[in-house]
Structures are given as C-alpha cells and as structure tokens.
Sequence to fold (266 residues):
Amino acid sequence: MDDQQFRQLLNCFALSWDGYRKVRKGVKKRVRRHMQQLGCRTMQAYLSALNQNKEARQHCEYLLTVSISRFFRVQDFWQALENKILPTIIKENRHRVKVWSAGCACGEEVYSLKILWDMLGGRFQRLPELEIWATDMNPAYLNKARTGIYPRSSLKEIPEALRKIYFRPQAKGRFYAVCDPLKKQVVWRVHNLFFDPPGRDFQLVFLRNSLLTYYQDELKEPAFQKVLDSLAQGGFLIIGSHEKIPPGARGLLLFGHHPYIFQKEA
Ligand SMILES: C[S@@+](CC[C@H](N)C(=O)[O-])C[C@H]1O[C@@H](n2cnc3c(N)ncnc32)[C@H](O)[C@@H]1O
Fold:
C-alpha cells in the first residue's frame, strides 16, 4: 500500500494525513493484514468491501486508532497539574471532583492522575471524592486499561521510588501492574467523541492526542464544541502539547504559560 492509497483510506474516515504521517508504517501493516483476510488485493476493492460490510468497516476503524501513550507524558504538564491545577480545583470543589479522560487509550493518563491524586492526599487534610470517566472508542484498549498491565517502557518517566509504591513487577520486570487501589473510582466506557459526552460539569477534561491530531478539520469543530459543553465553568481543558484548538472555539482562556492548558470562562 503506497501513501496515496493510504490517504484514500484515511479520507474515507475523514482522518488527517498529518496525524498519521509518523505512525503510518505500523497502521499500514495492520490494515494490510485486514485486506488479506478480506481477500482484497487493491485499495479500491478494500474500500468497496468496507462500504458493503458494516462489521469490516468498524474493524478497520479500530485498526486505524493509535494507542501510543505513556505514564506522565509531558512532564511539564503533570507538574502544572500537581502544583497549580489540582490544588485550584480542590479548593473550589470540596465534595466532589469530576474528570473526563477522552480518548484514554490503555489508561496511562488516567492512572497517572490517580497517582498524583494519591500523593496530594499528603498535602490536603481532606480530599474531595474523585470521579473519573475514562472513555475511548476502541473497546480493546479499554480492556487493557482495566487490566492495568504495562510494558516497562511505558513507565520510563516514573521515578523508581514511585514505581515501587504504585506498581508490581511482572514477568521479571518486563511488565508492571498498577496496584489495585488505583483502579477504584474509574468508570471505563466505550464512547465516540462525535457523540454526546458521558457527563457534564467536569472540572477537568483531558483531550490529548486524539480528536485534534487524527481527524480532518471539518470534523474537529463540532466534536470539540461537545467537549467544551461538558466542562464546568472555570473547568480546565488539557490538549496535547503539539495540538491547537479549532479556530472557531470560544470561551477558553489560556492558563499560565502552557499553550495546551485552558480554562473555561466563568
Ligand atoms: C494516541 S492515544 C492518546 C492517549 C492519551 N490521551 C495520551 O495523550 O497519552 C489516542 C486515543 O484516541 C482514541 N480515539 C481516536 N478517535 C476517537 C474518537 N472518535 N472517539 C473516542 N476515542 C477516539 C484512540 O482509540 C486512542 O486510544
């Protein structure tokens, strides 16, 4: 499959070439295998099979998702979260804090937050109840997230002292399992960002490296608006460090000097 044929496939799902350029090798490999399984020798034949077969189309859509993530991805952000954002949210929401991790992949971002939250327990007399909605369109990723077992490479940004507290080594240290208490109070749900959010009034929404990276512009704006609507007034929205919010988006203020942290206007 050459790049032109791959672009044809991306276009069929309104996915963006820019988002896939760096990861296309691995994605193409998965798609090629699917083409073979369906007996399609050309992209034309594959596209027409996807048009006629809903299940095959759905499977292809899953194959096109990219789950690359790791614990505490972008250290600067997690420091801002620990030192500024979470303390602000906690002071203003004494009873309950609602968080949505949209496009959570295999849960690395969610468990990173749970670790920070647990650590904040030592700084605050009493923490509010934490309710996390962790959603992704790919159910296979959510199953991995529920299991909570990760290759060592996903943990490379976690200091050893923390790794010892929150993870158990498996298979001679090639994999690590998150400890059971971190798994509590997380609702893992299949959800597509083009549909209504799983809740409202979230104080914190993670929308990192999903909608804004992998989709073509015309799809981004309406889905982004739905995400904005789910934020509480004064709530925080986090996007990927290389992403930009759609030009039509209103009602967001940049938070501090981080170009990927926003606060919804009160
Ligand atoms: C690269 S991972 C990002 C994981 C994590 N947010 C991070 O930044 O480390 C992108 C995730 O977005 C999910 N995704 C892509 N399109 C989606 C959609 N329309 N609805 C929900 N999830 C989607 C993919 O399945 C994948 O798990």
User: Anything to note?
Assistant: Residues 65-69, 73, 103-105, 108-109, 136-138, 141, 192-194, 208-210, 214, 240 surround S-adenosylmethionine (CB under 6 Å). The chain has a mean pLDDT of 96. The chain has two domains: 3-63, 75-264.
